[in-house]
Amino acid sequence: MIKKIKIKLRYFDFYLFIPYIILCLVGTVMVYSASSINLSYAGMTTNFYLERQLIYVFLGLICFSLTMLLKLANFTSKKFIIGGFWIIAGLLAYAKFMTKAVNGANGWINFKLFSLQPAELCKLYLVLFVAQILARREYFSLDNKIGGYRNWKPWLLVAILLIMILIEPDLGGFAINLTIVSLMILANTAALKSVKQAFSWLAVWAGTIIILLVVLRKWNPVAGTKYTYMYSRLTAFYNPFKVASDSGQQLINSYYAISNGGLFGLGLGNSIQKRGYLPEPYTDFILAVTSEELGAIGVACILALICWLTLRMFLIGIRAKNTYSALICYGIGTFFAVETFFNLGAVTGLLPITGVTFPFVSYGGSSMLVLSLALGIVMNISIHQRQVKFNKK
Q1: Is residue 53's pLDDT more than 90?
Q2: pTM of the model
Q3: SS3 (DSSP) at 115
Q4: HEC readout, 273-330
Q5: Which spans are transmembrane here (predicted)?
């Protein structure tokens, strides 16, 4: 084991690790800054969320190290795929039927130290599962084994997980998981007949989403149901000032925070909107507080680090010698990019609020652990590539 660790460290990819650590450190500082004042108002210790976030970062490093050291073959075994499906399906079912709704959705399981969101875990599982499906499709298609190429049963398992997330209801989790699966399919050129077909498939997918949003804007088919909360977020997205005292409050105060920050910000700890105006400023709207305190330049630096990580993952995927490793890198890179896009879009009003956290910066155990596991897998692939390249010289 010690020899294996030494080999891993010898070919360690610091281009992945350093941005990861910087984002975790920035996130820890901003979580403390965004949460301490409200905790003080409530008569609680101001270090409460800081201490928890430090624990999540520590556990995240353990998860990162674990997946970095494991053999990739472990993720392709039948036991992992089938066992993983039943575990995640069971967690989703438990969250749906055995827990109380939080912000209109039964998507959380409280483990005291942290609350687990099964939809977060599902993102990483689907990346690994879909990568295996598509890699096998390519293998079967090359060998002209049509039966294996057209096997629909694995896709049924994918659909079941997506539907279970949707009925929680967790629209943000469903949208991200669906987008990850869709873009992985597009990235796998062996599964498509031509580039024209790829763009046609993407246009149908995007058109369906746009039509759905238009229909929901004109009619409210969920009025009086448990999905009303989800619809109110769409209303706030279209015109937050019309519902300023209700569902539009969070977005409006996010606008104020971004406006107050300007280019250089008010200074660390000097945010006004976090003082009871912006709800839950340390979770999915932490970028608004960051913008107010560190300015547009501070936010741009954070986005640059995420962009670097994502592009690095895609580059590792391009360099991969087998389809499975390449698709894992594309899938995890898409995972990071889509989460960033959804969070940034919600904070700036470009997308409806979905409750998606910002990678490594927002407060949260589920997100930190799953993202760290995912990054560890990419590091694993990168180390193997660097080792093979060095041995060839």
Answers
A1: yes
A2: 0.86
A3: strand
A4: CCCCCCCCCCCCCHHHHHHHHHHHHHHHHHHHHHHHHHHHHHHHHHHCCCHHHHHHHH
A5: 12-34, 54-73, 80-97, 109-131, 152-167, 198-216, 294-315, 327-354, 360-383
